[in-house]
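GlsB/YeaQ/YmgE family stress response membrane protein: structure, please.
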Amino acid sequence: MLGLGFFGWIIIGGLAGWIASKIKGKDADMGIGLNIIVGIIGGLIGGWLLAKFGVDVDNGGLWFSFFTCILGAVILLTIVNFVKGKQRQ
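Here you go.
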């Protein structure tokens, strides 16, 4: 996934972060910058997690990278929501 390049990370990360925020119902709370950050970090989380399960993430291609970013972004937003919920109690 590192072969996407700088602009590839921004575009794929932004789209993945936006879709993940829609899935988690957080779209109103997030702007484009936060969507990009969540998507990029989500890509790292998703790639790391899938690699731990033995999935070849290096040769997956563009669509695989995109879905990996979405998966990781959803996981990241779930963790953030859990931590924020714990702080309110």
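Notes: The two ends are 38 Å apart (CA to CA).
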